[in-house]
Amino acid sequence: MVSNQLARQLKAEILRGEVEITVINESDTHVYQPLFLYMAFDQAVPEDAHRPEKSVLSRHVKLVVGNAERVEREKSVVLMSDGQEIPYDYLVIATGSRPAPESIPGLVEGGHIFYTEESALKLRDALLSFKGGRLVVTVAVPHKCPVAPLEFTLMAQDWLNARGLGEKSQVVYTYPIGRLHSLEPVANWANEVFPARNIETHTFFNVENVDPEEKTITSMEGETLSYDLLVAIPPHMGQDVIHRSELGDAGNWIPTNRHSLQMDGADNIYVLGDATNLPISKAGSTAHFEADVVAANLINRIRGGRGSARYDGKVFCFIETGHDQATYIKFDYEHPPKPQAPSEMIHLYKLAFNKMYWLSAAGVL
Ligand SMILES: Cc1cc2nc3c(=O)[nH]c(=O)nc-3n(C[C@H](O)[C@H](O)[C@H](O)COP(=O)(O)OP(=O)(O)OC[C@H]3O[C@@H](n4cnc5c(N)ncnc54)[C@H](O)[C@@H]3O)c2cc1C
């Protein structure tokens, strides 16, 4: 996104050999993660979520496929694991985040997640062989996509009903704080919808461990719940390259200025997407709106300006609500979200966006 905007706006400088834009990615495939939710219910397959990275990049952007070992600030280079050094005048870090199921004892052995492609496909198979019982969805924080756990829970209830397992099953949802979601208006909305769909809820439930033999999860608060199928949204961490580069905090999140998106104490390093330590939703839309600001500032600075565009905290998320309906939330640093009434139209729009994403990634939209 940033690189395509730079390539478009700085084409003359690139053609004159004054500017060079390089994207480093460990894979040559671009993956659209929101489809993992649908893969878990067998409503999407990996091919739907994959495109060659080159196909979404401007031809004026150089792609280096490889693993970034470390950012060496004193030399202004990114050191690759094959020993290659990639120099930079400006660096944009958008390394994302990863779920850390290993941080909850017993979870890897006893539960499922759907936040990676591989795990979503395993969960799909577990759901397809589920004969009914207690399906427990347990949420830990921080995690990316603030609303995916709610979407999964509501879609799971629908899915069980559609397969004739609704009567024999109980969907259970746990959340670590004293309400159903960290965004209060979303929690209030879920407070009405979940009981109406017969979803059992437990708040102040910080999962401490999973016992795969007994099929139970226990919280730090001392509550134990039994499960037949466990789906966890484990806490997330920033990527290991951030740790190796000593750029992050204990969770590998990079301290970032909330408006300029510059790394604290680094004038020529910008951070966007899940990699920041900003207390806002880690979502693709966040990365998208942040990318506009970072690109504008880089273009402006390269042309001699001060790079004073500011990010206002804007986030936009669709929320699948089951019953073939969806709603959405939009908010920023100053304005809290107000969930709208769900409708079939918004659900269809979300499905359409899952296809339009590729135009957005390529900078066409
Ligand atoms: C199930 C699910 C549903 C979601 N639904 C939504 C939704 O509906 N709406 C929404 O807005 N968001 C949603 N999201 C969240 C969204 O996908 C992420 O917030 C978004 O992808 C973050 O973008 P990013 O650029 O920060 O990181 P990423 O998209 O994760 O990109 C990071 C890139 O950095 C690369 N990388 C990392 N480390 C290295 C290294 N050392 N060397 C080289 N390359 C490296 C990775 O390979 C990756 O390509 C969802 C996520 C999941 C998992």
Give a written overview of the molecule.
The protein has 11 helices and 20 strands. By secondary structure, it is of the alpha/beta class. It folds into 2 domains: 2-26 and 66-96 and 239-302, FAD/NAD(P)-binding domain, CATH 3.50.50.60; 99-236, FAD/NAD(P)-binding domain. Helix 7 links the parallel strand 10 (134-139) and strand 11 (170-174). The mean pLDDT is 96. The structure holds flavin-adenine dinucleotide.
What is the CATH topology assignment of the largest domain? FAD/NAD(P)-binding domain
Number of helices: 11
- Tell me what portion of residues adopts beta-strand conformation: 15-25%
| Helix amount | 25-40%
Shape descriptor:
globular
Q: Could you state the CATH homologous superfamily of the largest domain?
A: FAD/NAD(P)-binding domain
Largest sheet: 4 strands, parallel
**What small molecules does the structure contain?**
flavin-adenine dinucleotide
Strands side by side in the biggest sheet: 12-11-10-16
Named at the architecture level, the CATH assignment of the largest domain is 3-Layer(bba) Sandwich
The chain-level mean pLDDT equals 96
Strands, total number: 20
Residue runs with pLDDT of under 50 for 5 or more positions: none
